[in-house]
UniProtKB/TrEMBL annotation:
Organism in which the protein naturally occurs: Sinorhizobium terangae
InterPro entries: P-loop_NTPase
Residue stretches spanning the membrane: 761-784, 805-821
Gene3D superfamilies documented for this protein: P-loop containing nucleotide triphosphate hydrolases
Signal peptide boundaries: 1-27
Protein name, as recorded: ATP-binding protein
UniProt KW keywords: Membrane, Signal, Transmembrane, Transmembrane helix
Amino acid sequence: MTSRIAQLHTALVAGLVVCLAAPASYAATILPRSAEQLTAYQAKSHLAGDQVQILVSRWFGQIRESDVDGSIAAIEFLRGAPSTFLKLAIQKLRDSDVLDRVFAAANDGQKDRLRNSPAINDNRLRDLLWRDHLAMLRAALAEKSDAGNTTALFLIANVNAMQLLPGPIAEEYLNALQDDALNDQLRDEIAAMLRGRWAELRPQKETLAAWLKAGAAGSAAADARRRLALSVFARLGEPLSDAEIDDVAADNPADFLAVVAARRTVAQAHVSQLVDILRNVSDPGLWTAANAALRASDPAALSAFYSGLDQQAAAMWSPAILDRLIRSADPQEATVFNNWTAAGTAIDCDGVRWRLSLLQRQASARDLRFGQAWDLLTKAAVCENDLSGEIDDALTSIGGDELPSLLVDALDSDGPGQLANMTSVLPQVSRSMAGLLNDRLANRDLAAAEWLMDIGIIPTDQGLRQRNYWSSPASGERLDVIDLRALQVMSAPPPEALLTAKTLAGSDGAGVAIRSAALMALAAHAPAKEKAEAFLSAVESGNAAIARPAIILLAQTYDEAKPGAGLSLPEVDVMGTMRTWPDVSADATVLLKTLVRYDANFARDYADSLDGGAYALEPGNKCLTLAESPTIDARLLAPVLNIAVGNADVASQNLALACVATLSRPGAATALLSEAWRNIAATDPTIALKALKSLWEVEGFREVASRELEIKIGQIAGRLAQSAPLSTEAMSALSYWKHELAAIDPAEAQTISTELNKRRLFAFLALVPSAIVVHLLLWGLLLTAYPRFAWIQAVVFWNPIMRRILGLGYIDLVLLHLGFARRRIYAPFKSSLLGDILSENPNQLDRISYFTDSRVWHRPRVDARHTGAANSISADQPILQALSRHRGRVLLLGKSGLGKSSFLRFSLAARARQDRDVIAYLRADQCRNGVEAQLEERLNGLARGNDLLSAMIYAGRIFIYIDGYNEVDLATQDAITGFLARYPFANVLVASQIPLRGFSTIETFEMIPLTGETIRDFLVSREPVLAESVPVRGELFDKVAVSFLADVNARPRDDAEKKAFDDILSNPMDLTSIAILLGDGRTPDLFALEAQQLEGVVQKLAATDQKFRTAALSNALLEQRLQDQENLQKLPFQPEVAALVTSKLAIVRTDADDAGAVAAQEIRFRHDRIRDYFTHFAFLGFTAEKQAEFAEDARFAGVFPYLARALPQSEAEALRERLITRAADLEDHRVSDSFVREYSWRQKISAQDPAWLPDYDVPEVRESDNRLFELTRRRQEIDEEVNANRDLISRSRAMTRILAAADPNFLRDAAVVIFQEMGGDLELGDEGASKALLRSPDGISFRVVGLSQPQAIKSFHVEVLVARFTGSNTIPFIVTNARALEDPLTRGEDLDPRDRQALLSVGAYVISARALYDAFLQAHGQTSHDQFWHFVFPTQKQTGTSA
């Protein structure tokens, strides 16, 4: 054996002699000097790039508010996760609000788990849950008790777990400091915390400035506020006065030094404070900063500070400050240290440092100082850290040229002592001592050489080669560990030397020390492939003393190499054996972890080695190690699932399932199992069952799966199978799991068996629909033949009993819901349902020319499901678009003559031609016996039994249109509204001039009168309706019509006339009358259109020697209307009726059957206004009392405006008073208002007498005129007083309503009123519609913008404003009002802090409506409004300039 060792030594020497000439290498110093000093290896994570992205994406997908427990598990999964994964995962959380949403969805227990989550707190994610922190803080502060203070202190400590301090939280803590009664400890803790967060208090500078300005005021609370403000301003670099800087220096050195760093001149004026910091500060960094500042500003003061030092006083300073004190002194200042001593016992590393610095700065004898340093390092020190740099500098500096002799004497006398435990490397000392070490190695004085190497001396390659150290060793001498240690520290050993070391490492004949040293040499220099072979050989030797360092070094080798490097890998069974050795099992597990990425078998072994306890401590580390496996499959994840099922605690289960979900490809069996385990219904049960089956059949999965896991999978499969749809696939899955679980879980197998039997029964019953299909085919044939065969109609369809028998009870449902069948069955009744809508009626004006540009306003319905919609009115829209095919119950509301009936006839005729819907058109006067009765009458036999018709109406399968609601008596109106109430889901449209009685919340479309160009367009469009014989037609009519409108608009008129003219010209019916008069060559009188047309009729009739019997016709018409009838053809006035038809005041309406034959015919007035005009002649003969009685009948409401024009003045005024009294009694002002309005116009127009006319009055008239003037004056005074009070209320309410403003424009306008009330002025030149550009009394120009919503304000609203004002030169003043319908006392904050910050970033001022109104109330009634404007613009100095 001795001979073999000698041969190996000779080979080693021959190999090393070539490479040792190179300079000494320090690259290998990352390895300890010996294998015994090796510590357990910490494997690195190799996750990177796209793989991390994919894993984080899967992990992030588990965090959702619908699965709070799963989300908590995913968050806790971050414990121990590799930094690459952790960094991206945290960024994902910060880029979204998902954590906040999960917290909002959590129950109290779950919220506590999130608050106390190590993953959240350790990664400083608590700021993502800032709303919870804010709510708890407010509650704790509001409690004002010891318990509340304790909670607040706990919350302050939690701020350390926030990466950023959210603005609202910072603001709340600042608000808390405003409370002078705040607990002292709590105040101090808040101030200390905020002082540490100074950078995040920049937005609060205004508040801090106010505190600073207020001063301490003899109050501890005020003093704390001022000190905090000083601290923050000092850190932010804000300007401070000299006195304030003195206060900062006295209060906090760090803050003072921040001021000094920002303003160098401060140091010169505050030298004494800097000296105080040097004397008293305990922070080394602050001491260094103060030292540097003092040396730059006043070196003499610093020298004086040094001259006054003594070691006893300096003992109060920390070792780190002492070290800096000694090192920073200049040579003159350092003389003070000559009397200091470096003696001591049990000196730690910091103590060693400053003592070495001291010995270098002292001027005593070199040998004395070197001896003190040597005793310090070898005897007094207890430090084992690597202080190579400090020791190297100290020994070189102290020893100087005498270093070799001093060091040899000390080493030979005392040995390396404690210095050998510091694993130091001393390159500067080595340059002086390498020659001596080379000599001792060459002379085989290995003990002495070892001492030199123990203290960190490195031999040189050149020196050893010159001494032939490697080529001529003593014959037969044993190879020593020192030789291999020399090889370890070399820079570039030759391959032969490493091969020799490899041989030694694997030699069973070599001693443990030799083999261990050889392993260390190989670890320092050999290629990875050779290292792996050597270390594997040592591991397989079976010697634990050799195996442990080999395992550690092998783990490092695998961890630093790439899987494709071709390294030798251990056998799987060898790895299993190693993990059973007590001394190396932990290191073997680490080695196995490094092998995961090399081979899936090692990954599976590593997964098998996991246990629940270790996994729970570092789930991210353990799980994501598996992610490095070349293959991630069910077999690999089975042990993790075993961990899940082995935990009774649901949270621990979810933690393991989070790993499975993260490692599983979306849609994989394990991913679906993870979701199903947690009852996440994200996947179709059939797909999940397939996945579980495939998982169950994966090779090797069930071999690893525990029995508990098998049972769990079976239970999940059973639950999924029960929720799967009825299908053969689902029944096959049930049968499979019944068989598979029979032996594992008989109870679950029985449950599945029961479900399977149920489904088989259902499958049998599913055959029934086949018979139904045949039955439906039969009914399809019947429907096809239905229109052609009367006997099928009568016997089958119109007979409810036979229809139910042949239809097996369900055919009515088919007819109800199947559009084709429904239209087919109602086809024979189309004509009767639509009446004259289907007939051509060429004399009906809307058929000749319909004006398509009429528009409506839309008011949505108001009910419990549409709260707050009552005031919501959309923009106007074309009526043909808005009501092309309405849904639900709708009111078409509009004044007389605006075109409601014309629209219905035109649009329904078009829809009837499309034949897509079943439509019924009814006049209100046809519904006296009820709407259903009228429909039954029109449907003949089909409606017998009424149930099918009622079902059709209720389900909205028939579109019903009722015209002229206001023209019938109250009983008929009640019948119509009762019909609407009975059928809440029916599609019914009612056209009326008045709202429906008892249905004020119905969805309403209100006709809009014509305006502007539309009036001209409509009038010109009436040319086609003129008779062929009229003298003015074609282009001439167009010219005359335009000229007439121009003439009307050019006439001088007051407001009353203008309003009256506009009211007439905006009415399509009146414009049609104007067109007819213009066509006849007459000039229309706007206030006598009907009279002019009647005059024309009278003249035409007189030309035939016939008289128009106006009064008699009117009385007959009244009698007919009282009977709810209207058919002029039935009146004994044929000449008059014929003349009315010729003059287009009446029209002939014809109902045709399906064959086109005339079924019925009637003559009606063209419009109800014309009918009312002819009716009013009968009323002229009544007394005022009787006339007033008719006012209560809605059918005659349109007569009274004509009475206001026609009655003598005294009678008109008497009737007016009766109508006003009646309106007050009945609380119904419609008739009285129309009468008063028309009479008022009559008075104003008739009162336009020349100024000279009263001079010709008789005396009694003059006297009456004077009395009338006096009465009018008194009445005017009363009216003015009433109006003044109304105006006061109105003006005040205009500002108060800012609290309820949900519309941004209304909110803006209300804010503008407040600003004007407080002295703000509208800017000149702002001619926009908003008029929101204002200037404050001190000259600040700003634009008011409203930002309000009935609910919460969304971020996109803010984004629009940010985009609008980015780069704007105008200061935007944003007034917010979120949740405007709630009481202001119950609302939260209007804006999310991020949204508020976004607005502030573009220079906007942001204030809530509540705060603005509160400021207004406080300033209201005060002589000065300065307080209000200072509140509004707290950061402006009111200089009169705008930002």
